[in-house]
Design goal:
The protein is elongated and about 90 Å long. The protein has 9 helices and 22 strands. The protein has a domain of 364 residues: Beta Barrel (Porin), CATH 2.40.160.40. The protein starts with a helix and ends with a strand. By secondary structure, it is of the alpha+beta class. 16% of the residues lie in helices and 37% in strands. The relative contact order is 0.21. Strands 1-6-7-9-11-12-13-16-17-19-20-22 form a 12-stranded antiparallel beta barrel.
Length: 521
């Protein structure tokens, strides 16, 4: 075996190139679609939660690996025993202003499931025992003379989702504190416990703050209320899109002239379009009250879900007597079984902008497997893949559309049984331990996806269309985790992590920044 001093010198010099490689990878833009995932959150606002800045495959195994690689002197081996316990406390911030639709268009966050179709509130068969609220009944009488025309519903909807639709330019912010406890139970088996608390805030942002979207706007837009909603048609003709009403500018640069859009469907008379503006568009807040839908901005602090990760890992030393032809390295397979307890706050369906703090009340079981190759003199490379199963759960007063053309806003609620689809994830990792003095770092790429949910109406009322929600439940995302940790003592390190969004489909484009205080003993 090589002299440990020579091996340590080579180990440090070669790893300096790792930093350059990480910077190059961080700048790569990837346009592929992901294939995997681990947490059931709507539209992937937090697709791959992280709980520490440390290498995700440490598993309280670092000191043992350093001994196997012969990088410590005999005195070091006596001083530093194998880790038995680890603890991390990590404040983090997460934010997003834009997302991607199912067709891969850049959209506002609230428009990911589609812009709010106000006219479609009048469509569809009425559920048993339910009637349209007074304002929608009045709108139906004024616009359609009491009943829908004989023509097909698709002929009544603007295909560009401009006229008769609301856009929802939401701003997503999340601040919290996450904890990770790691225990080595016996030999190669261990347990990691993860939990946290956070504040989630979703507010309407001012479209006019984005000059590349709002062209020629002279007066500042405001958060919509009863007064500003009444000026929807006039403002839209002036070319100033508003946060909710009127004819917003399409972020895909496919917007057409306001007047010429009206020929795309049958509602082209002046009287009919004026009635739509007066009885639907201008009365959004009042309609929301009648259907018990709160349009206030969402801000809440609550606990997140609790995760138990049981793992096994073992290091196999390959080429223990290295030569110039064959390098020494460790082959480390590992398996993790994950159980999630839904302690996080669930989403209230009566709040338009609400989000859950985890799996939305669903218990989950996941499994992943991977393998790391830890080269003695260079870097560590790893691959992993896994899946998560969510258990079904019943919800009362859940909002379900009663027309295939409804999107964003639904007038009726009912009881449903939801079984979330499987989540899959896969990725690779590059890491280097102490590549510059006491600084360690890693780069991790993860591809994640969520299969479609199964939603069943409990009372089997055929008026409800749960298949509309099922189609919206599929999403996917790609992220890159870049983390650095600096050891300030043999047992304590400080770290920083940035989770960068790479590609999304029907999901938020969320970025996460995290700091950690890490301790092991």
């Amino acid at each position: 075996m090589f002299d440990w001093q020579e091996r340590k010198r080579m180990f440090g010099s070669l790893k300096n190139y790792y930093l350059i490689f990480v910077v190059i990878l961080a700048g790569i833009s990837i346009d592929l679609y992901p294939i995997a995932f681990a947490i059931n959150s709507p539209f992937g606002q937090d697709p791959f939660p992280v709980y520490s800045t440390q290498d995700p495959h440490e598993f309280l195994y670092r000191r043992h690996r350093q001994r196997l690689k012969g990088l410590w002197e005999e005195d070091d081996e006596k001083e530093y025993k194998d880790e038995r316990f680890g603890f991390s406390i990590s404040p983090y911030a997460q934010y997003a202003d834009r997302g991607r639709s199912k067709r891969n268009y850049k959209v506002y966050l609230g428009d990911i499931p589609g812009r709010w179709n106000m006219l479609a509130l009048l469509f569809g068969e009425l559920p048993d025992g339910k009637t349209l609220p007074p304002l929608l009944t009045t709108a139906q009488n004024e616009i359609f003379g009491g009943k829908l025309p004989a023509s097909k519903e698709e002929n009544l909807v603007d295909p560009n989702q401009q006229y008769g639709f609301f856009t929802t330019p939401l701003k997503y912010r999340r601040f919290g504190l996450r904890f990770e406890l790691d225990f080595q139970m016996i030999k190669d088996f261990g347990l990691t416990v993860q939990f946290g608390f956070s504040n989630i805030c979703q507010t309407l942002e001012d479209i006019c703050d984005w000059p590349e979207i709002c062209h020629g706007c002279e007066t500042p837009c405001t958060i919509p209320d009863e007064t500003t909603l009444s000026r929807a048609a006039a403002r839209s003709k002036e070319g100033c899109p508003r946060p909710l009403p009127g004819a917003p500018i399409d972020l895909t640069d496919k917007a057409e002239d306001f007047e010429t859009r009206l020929v795309n469907y049958n509602l082209i008379t002046t009287a009919t379009t004026a009635a739509m503006e007066e009885y639907l568009m201008d009365r959004l807040c009042s309609i929301g009250k009648e259907i018990n839908l709160c349009l206030s901005e969402f801000s809440k602090t609550a606990p997140e879900d609790l995760h138990f990760n049981f793992y096994w890992r073992h290091a196999f030393e390959i080429n223990p007597n290295p030569t110039e032809e064959w390098a020494n390295f460790l082959l480390i397979p590992y398996f993790v079984a994950r159980i999630t307890i839904p302690t996080g706050e669930k989403k209230d369906p009566n709040f338009a902008y609400a989000l859950p703090f985890g799996n939305n009340g669903h218990y989950a079981f996941g499994f992943l497997g991977g393998i790391n190759i830890d080269f003695t003199e260079t870097v560590e490379f790893g691959l992993e893949a896994g899946a998560t199963h969510f258990f079904r759960r019943e919800f009362c007063n859940y909002r379900v559309p009663n027309s295939c053309f409804q999107q964003g806003i639904y007038p009726f609620t009912t009881g449903v049984l939801i079984e979330p689809g499987l989540d899959f994830f896969g990725g690779f990792k590059l890491s280097a331990y102490h590549f510059i003095s006491m600084l360690s770092g890693y780069f991790q790429f993860v591809a994640i996806t969520h299969r479609g949910d199964k939603i069943r109406v409990c009372n089997c009322d055929p008026a409800f269309k749960p298949q509309v929600l099922e189609k919206l439940s599929c999403w996917s995302s790609m992220v890159a985790n870049i983390g650095f940790n600096y050891d300030i003592s043999p047992n304590i390190s400080l770290g920083f992590l940035w989770q960068a969004p790479l590609a999304q489909k029907n999901a938020y484009r969320s970025s996460t920044a995290m700091f950690s205080f890490n301790f092991d003993y």
